[in-house]
């Protein structure tokens, strides 16, 4: 998102109103205050206007899905795809717990294994060419059941799986709260980071779902816990803490998207 | 370039050494100090280390060139190309004076008219598909003599025209100095901004060459003047001043790439 913010207007603590830049795509004039204020979470001022860059809707897109036996294989395919230079529009990784949640919430019967979902965009020929290249990469990493669709309704139906993932996760334990955390590591470390994290998550008595923006090296974990049980909250915090430290030890960040707030302030100094 | 900087290390005025971020592709942890320090021209600290994002070399590329009767037509094609969603890797605009300089310096006989040069990258099929789409756009805006090459030596030979443009410009008047300026405007205003600027440049007694990174809305002007003639220096400054104000009036910036230094400090407040 932040790459699509051209400039913004903010009210500073002393009441001054600043506009951070022109509407030009690039500028070497003065400090990049736009990026400084984005993500500053209100500590520098209150954002009151944002100028966004518009993107052309792609003329064509393909949505694809593929199953894997291990989360490592799935992450390896995401890494290999990005490193191949293919300009994939979206690559999302859902672990087997997440797929189970989707099956339960929507009466589906998807194989409950780590799954990758892709979107390829461009001209019709190019979107299809990319799809077939990634199908080949997936096959090289034990991917199975690679399917892709081009028809609008079929694409919408397939993406629904990903779009409703969060709500399906919540629905697994309606009386529970969710601790939602995210970390991000260099892409080359993603498979290792998810694998190490999954070992701990799978061994925990809590139900934990993993969903990753795998092309960015970024993944989210939804940790479901009973808010009336203090030990469950502590267990959720222990898992969160472990994942953050694992990511930091791999030259990653304690949060890729969600921000710091009060929950992750304690990790900033180390990072 | 700045989009490819993942993090950096800088020495602050008090001697503190800071590292601005992790190696993750994205982060929501704390202020974006990387972007704040890039382009700060030494006012915040001295950059001592930079971590760059590597890009995969494209498997194929095509280089193309096309002539136009007016700089407005050429700029309109650059705008239409970018707005079409085609992911052009490079689109460079050279005005007729710049082409004359290249002919003089290299014994070439290129038509001395506004010229666009393109690079398309991707798979072989996709690079060619983009080329043909842009050929069509160029034809719709009175483009002529559209040529494209795919063979490595031929590509290198064609890009040489663009690569040696600056030196060819200097060679036009070896005893002169060059005032090199750059502005950047929203892409939709590029044709108008270059056209208005060209009217003034062409009417000036000084020799002025225009070369644009047209896909960004960014253009450079090389103004050649005799440093022993104070009035020529003043005329160069007048032209520079006019272009900056034209760009600012179009919600652009006084410098897209070159930076502020001491020469453009006076424009920062207005911008």
Q: How do you describe this structure in short?
A:
Two copies of one chain form a homodimer. The longest helix of chain A has 20 residues.
Notes on the structure:
Two copies of one chain form a homodimer. By secondary structure, chain A is an alpha+beta fold. Chain A has three domains: 2-52, Uridine Diphospho-n-acetylenolpyruvylglucosamine Reductase, domain 3; 60-164, 2-Layer Sandwich (Alpha-Beta Plaits), CATH 3.30.70.2190; 167-268, Alpha-Beta Plaits, CATH 3.30.70.2740. Helices cover 38% and strands 25% of the residues of chain A. A seven-stranded antiparallel beta sheet of chain A has the order 7-4-6-5-9-10-8, with helices on both faces. Chain A has a three-stranded antiparallel beta sheet with strand order 2-1-3. The longest helix of chain A is centred in the last third of the chain and has 20 residues, at 230-249. Chains A and B meet through helix 4 of A and helix 4 of B.
CATH class of the largest domain in chain A: Alpha Beta
Chain oligomer state: homodimer
Largest inter-chain interface?
Answer: A-B, 58 and 58 residues
Number of helical segments with 4 or more residues of chain A: 9
The N- to C-terminal Cα distance of chain A equals: 22 Å
Q: Give a short account of the largest sheet of chain A.
A: 7 strands, antiparallel
Query: Could you tell me the number of beta strands of chain A?
Result: 10
Percent of residues in β-strands of chain A: 15-25%
What low-confidence regions of chain A span 5 or more consecutive residues with pLDDT below 50?
Answer: none
Structural class of chain A: alpha+beta
Overall number of structural domains of chain A: 3
Family (chains A, B): Belongs to the FAD-binding oxidoreductase/transferase type 4 family.
Protein name (chains A, B): FAD-binding PCMH-type domain-containing protein
GO molecular function (chains A, B): D-lactate dehydrogenase (cytochrome) activity; D-lactate dehydrogenase (NAD+) activity; FAD binding
Cofactor (chains A, B): FAD
